[in-house]
Design goal:
Shape: elongated
Helix content: 25-40%
CATH architecture of the largest domain: 3-Layer(aba) Sandwich
Largest sheet: 5 strands, mixed
CATH topology of the largest domain: D-Maltodextrin-Binding Protein, domain 2
CATH class of the largest domain: Alpha Beta
CATH superfamily of the largest domain: Periplasmic binding protein-like II
Structural class: alpha/beta
Strand order of the largest sheet: 9-8-10-7-11
Order of helices and strands: HEEEHEHEHEEEHEHEHEEHH
Number of strands: 12
Distance between the termini: 70 Å
Strand content: 15-25%
Oligomer: single chain
Number of helices: 9
């Protein structure tokens, strides 16, 4: 065997070992979702959910990469296997076909609330009070099975929640539906407390928050290791620390 062929053979044999040593990257499909997924002053992904995935990547000895995308494109990336994980994306039967929602859950379900303008005298205390209102929703977002399947509701889609708030403030929709903590954070950040009000109606959260792994991700071959790392983070309190939650001990 000639020297060039020998060197080529050695390089081919070594390349998988080098790739493994370098660490398979973990690609997070990232869309902003304040206060959990935000951008810092440099425009870099930040927030508690990002910190959770960053900690997970460290425990897997994997470089963390970000694929910036609106929610619909993030879902497409997961379906195609161009991204490995998502966080803060609610499960549904259609999404479960291409997203593997991992156990354990990292956070409990959070209720949905309704925001209207302060000047609007209408009250939303029962689910039936939603009928007749033009409701701002975000394209591609799953809210609640009853709400999502109700053909009697009048929905006005928007590309993101910021557009929804702008429409509400401008009077182009009557109300918006949003996760309670998410809504409170955005209203406070926008300084809209005197312009918008949260209605009494609460729509129960129906699912715990779970990390999603693309069914076409190469990390599927190491699914057990990913779940074990996530389980350890939940058990040792790392997840609650990153979420800013005080652990309740019996």
């Amino acid at each position: 065997m000639t020297l060039p062929r020998l060197l080529l053979l050695l390089a081919l044999l070594a390349s998988p070992l080098l790739a493994e040593a370098a660490g398979r990257p973990l690609i997070l499909a990232f869309n902003t979702f304040p206060p959990w997924k935000t951008l810092d002053s440099r425009g870099e992904p930040a927030g508690p959910y990002v910190d959770i995935v960053r900690e997970l990547a460290q425990r897997l000895n994997a470089p963390l990469l970000f694929l910036h995308c609106p929610i619909q494109r993030c879902l497409q990336a997961m379906e195609q296997g161009r991204a490995d994980v998502v966080i803060g994306v609610r499960s549904s039967p259609d999404r479960a076909a291409y997203i593997d929602y991992l156990s354990p859950a990292y956070a409990p379900a959070n209720p949905l609330v309704v925001y209207t303008r302060v000047a609007d005298p209408r009250k939303v205390t029962r689910y039936e009070d939603l009928y007749g209102l033009v409701l701002g929703v975000v394209e591609g977002v799953k809210y609640q099975p009853r709400f999502d399947a109700d053909a009697r509701l009048l929905r006005e889609p928007a590309p993101n929640i910021h557009s929804n708030f702008n429409k509400l403030l401008a009077g182009r929709v009557d109300a918006i539906i949003i996760n309670r903590q998410h809504g409170e954070a955005l209203v406070a950040r926008g300084g809209w407390q005197g312009l918008l009000k949260q209605q009494p109606l609460l729509l129960d959260g129906v699912d715990e928050r779970q990390l999603g792994l693309s069914r076409r991700s190469p990390w599927q071959t190491e699914r057990a290791r990913v779940c074990a790392a996530l389980r350890a983070m939940v058990k040792d309190g790392s997840v609650n620390r990153l979420l800013g939650v005080t652990l309740r001990r019996p």
